[in-house]
UniProtKB/TrEMBL annotation, chains A, B:
It catalyses: a fatty acyl-[ACP] + phosphate = an acyl phosphate + holo-[ACP]. Homodimer. Probably interacts with PlsY. It comes from the Bacteria. This is Phosphate acyltransferase. Pfam families: FA_synthesis. It is found in: Cytoplasm. PANTHER family: FATTY ACID/PHOSPHOLIPID SYNTHESIS PROTEIN PLSX (PTHR30100), PHOSPHATE ACYLTRANSFERASE (PTHR30100:SF1).
Length: 326, 326
């Protein structure tokens, strides 16, 4: 346990989550003495909370390759080992995303049939959110990768929200079949040929926010750019509004109404902070909560991990991609 | 002359532009009788305004290939012929973008050395705007294409704003040299090897709005997605704000301050409406004003065309890419 806010918010979030879900067990991985001292004043069901000591932490600026080699005593490494060995059913981390992906691939391994793990996060949309993947784990993708992302995204939507037939779309530059790169067109054929998927067709950048799409599939380059453009646009609009507001007293009053809306959106889409981003395709449930997680958002990430475990996410992906391969 | 708003706004814009720039001559291409009747009540310097009759128009939903074949009597076709034959120095059109690109390629031809024409439009940014290209004319690009976009974008920035050394960035998923696709990395080498270009390095999606970048280069797939994500984000924020505002009287008052800011942004970044988008790489200055152009924005497109002509945009691109090729 590390994360920008240190132990405090992850421990508070864990205790809240235990209170809210009586079926939940949590193992806190980190410096045992520090964890114990943080827990001292709290009331909790000690039968459902254990501690696993790890002396080291992965820093937010550690290179993934170096973390993998030199941080075997870190809480991140240890937590993934617990998952690999069946001691826990899922891992939630607010640590370094690159290190988490790298360690996940080595310690947990990919599921059989999975060619590339992907990062999938919710982007706010009308009436809820759209799950979008990949968000940067795979910069260059072929059609088969995109097809696998569709399968994994659909499985996540099913596990998290219980959707039987999540509506899948492929991000493209137009809705017509003739549009797009050869990779996107070939991926569309692979996805629509799989009758287990509810593929609704190509979608465009603005459709991310549509209430008609549950899962938006794209390569990690496009996904990363799209998410950062979201963030940049929101930031830019905030700046323009602020300038307008500052011009009058009336404007300053208006700002009080607008600020919370923009702040909430900004927080939701900040790509440095994918809150509740799932690393899909690994042999185990791994959820990344953002580095500067508030108690509430870390709590949400814990519940998300629990839902993914209960929804048998890993098995769902394994069985569908295994079938595809054979 | 066609466009969603018909003749009225383009004629008013033309008369205003003639008043504002005494060096300007305008040739209105379209149905002569309709143009003459629109001009009846107006005062203007008839020595600087001529009319060229064309009986047909390209519709907004005409397929580019069909427009090219069947609309040789259209105002768009005729205007590009006037440019090709040296009768005018630039063309401004509010018509069908696809048809304009296709007709431009055939009637004007590409400049020697230019591999692909590109669509370049201003995206609002802090302290002004960032010129971004390509915005959808070229869905699959190699490193040489991106390099040529950089040259053409820099030439446009120079012609429009008189910048001697426009700051160029390549859109990527991170600022570090090791980031990105092989195409983007190779393009970075080509661009930085050209000492005439002021290349500042990789930039991310949120940097489009930065005041430190004059020209952002990307392939047409990424550019199209990025622009539509901008539009979608702005639209989504507007929707969220509206909901918040509607909850109280005070909120409804705040909406009055916010609405014009969001409307202006939305209009600027609507990809269906690239206002003042330049088609770069053709043998002549062609500016696309958006279909639903207001008088003011059509006027801006006319002034932009005039600046591009005065700044010798076509020659600047030709000489730099010709040198590169030889």
């Amino acid at each position: 346990m590390s994360g920008d806010h240190g132990l405090r918010s992850s421990i508070s979030a864990s205790l809240n989550a235990l209170n809210q879900n009586s079926a939940l067990h949590i193992c806190l991985v980190g410096d045992e003495a520090a964890i114990r001292s943080s827990l001292l004043a709290s009331n909790y069901d000690s039968a459902r909370l254990s501690i696993c000591h790890s002396p080291d932490v992965v820093a937010m600026d550690d290179l993934p390759s170096k973390a993998l080699r030199y941080k075997k005593q870190s809480s991140m490494y240890r937590a993934l080992e617990l998952l690999r060995d069946g001691n826990v059913a899922g891992v939630v981390s607010a640590g370094n995303t690159g290190a988490l992906v790298a360690m996940g691939c080595i310690i947990l391994d990919r599921l059989p049939g999975v060619r590339r793990p992907a990062i999938c996060a919710p982007v706010p949309a009308k009436n809820g959110y759209t799950l979008m993947l990949d968000l940067g784990a795979n910069i260059e993708c072929d059609a088969e990768h995109l097809y696998q992302f569709a399968v994994m995204g659909a499985a996540l939507s099913n596990a998290l929200d219980g959707r039987d037939a999540p509506r899948l779309a492929l991000l493209n530059v137009g809705a017509e079949l003739i549009k797009g790169t050869s990779v996107v067109k070939e991926a569309a054929e692979l996805i629509s040929a799989d009758s287990r998927l509810n593929y609704i067709g190509f979608a465009e950048g603005n459709d991310i926010f549509s209430e008609n799409i549950d899962v938006m599939v794209c390569d990690g380059f496009t996904g990363n750019v799209a998410l950062k453009v979201c963030e940049g646009t929101a930031n830019f609009i905030r700046g323009q509004l602020k300038e307008t507001f500052m011009k009058s007293l009336y404007g300053r009053l208006a700002a009080l109404v607008v600020k919370p809306v923009l702040n909430a959106f900004q927080k939701d889409i900040n790509p440095e902070r994918y809150n509740g981003a799932a690393l899909l395709g690994l042999n185990g449930v791994v959820i990344k909560s953002h580095g500067g997680s508030s108690v509430k958002s870390f709590e949400a990430a814990i519940h998300q991990a629990a839902r993914a475990v209960r929804g048998d996410l890993t098995q769902a992906i394994a069985s569908q991609l295994h079938t595809t391969e054979s």
